[in-house]
From TrEMBL:
Location in the cell: Cytoplasm
Protein's job: Plays a role in the regulation of phosphate uptake.
Source organism of this protein record: Monoglobus pectinilyticus
UniProt xrefs under Pfam families: PhoU (PF01895)
Name of protein: Phosphate-specific transport system accessory protein PhoU
One CC-aspect GO term: cytoplasm
Subunit organization: Homodimer.
UniProt keyword list: Cytoplasm, Phosphate transport, Transport
Homology family: Belongs to the PhoU family.
GO annotation (BP), single: phosphate ion transport
Length: 213
């Protein structure tokens, strides 16, 4: 019986890795679509978001099966409940990548904008998402705590991006509307970072039994 349970836990880990990879891909596609004003890539982001929704349902079903058909011990219960919380955050990451894609579809191209900080912010939040899932699969408390500690880095980049955009609007008032849309995008990225932190905190709970307030 335990060997069957362990096989299902392995399946859970594989599906979480797949969901995390889809989230990372959605973020990457959304930002490439934004910076290149590529509506085809924006549409690709929306398709990935649908895949994320589908795998969320599959993982939720597997977790419920583990709870109802097996006899998990306390540590298993923590792990499964953490997984259920994590997929909610990952689904929201997909939603926010889709929100960025929608901005691309309805926004004009911005000329002359230096995208260095928003690219750096994208790379930072993508890494946080990937490593938070890796921490769960590997029961790596140190990695989870490292993700949590990097939230301040993303917050600082959020401020830098907005400062860049305020300067850009001052110098290019004709593009103010598009710049404000880009500010909203930076907010979505900041929220994605928050969701990665949430995931890491649930990893911490699955290992220690303690959840941060």
């Amino acid at each position: 019986m335990r060997s069957k349970f362990d096989r299902q836990l392995d399946k859970l880990n594989r599906e979480l890795i797949e969901m995390g990879a889809l989230c990372e891909n959605a973020i990457d596609c959304a930002i490439r679509a934004l910076l290149n004003h590529d509506k085809e890539t924006a549409d690709e982001t929306l398709s990935i978001e649908e895949e994320i929704n589908q795998i969320e349902k599959a993982i939720e079903g597997l977790c419920l099966k583990l709870l109802l058909q097996q006899q998990p011990v306390a540590s298993d219960l923590r792990l499964i409940s953490a997984a259920l919380k994590m997929i909610t955050d990952m689904e929201r990451i997909g939603d926010q990548a889709a929100d960025i894609a929608e901005i691309v579809i309805h926004t004009e191209l911005m000329d002359g904008y230096n995208s260095a900080h928003i690219k750096k912010m994208t790379k930072a939040v993508s890494k946080m998402v990937t490593e938070s899932v890796d921490a769960f699969v590997g029961s790596n408390l140190e990695l989870a705590q490292d993700v949590i500690n990097r939230d301040d880095e993303v917050d600082d980049l959020f401020i830098e991006v907005n400062n860049d955009l305020i300067k850009y609007i001052t110098e290019n008032p004709q593009n103010a509307s598009a710049a404000l849309d880009l500010m909203m995008t930076s907010k979505y990225l900041e929220r994605i970072g928050d969701h990665a932190v949430n995931i890491a905190e649930w990893v911490e709970f699955s290992i220690t039994g303690v959840h941060r307030e």
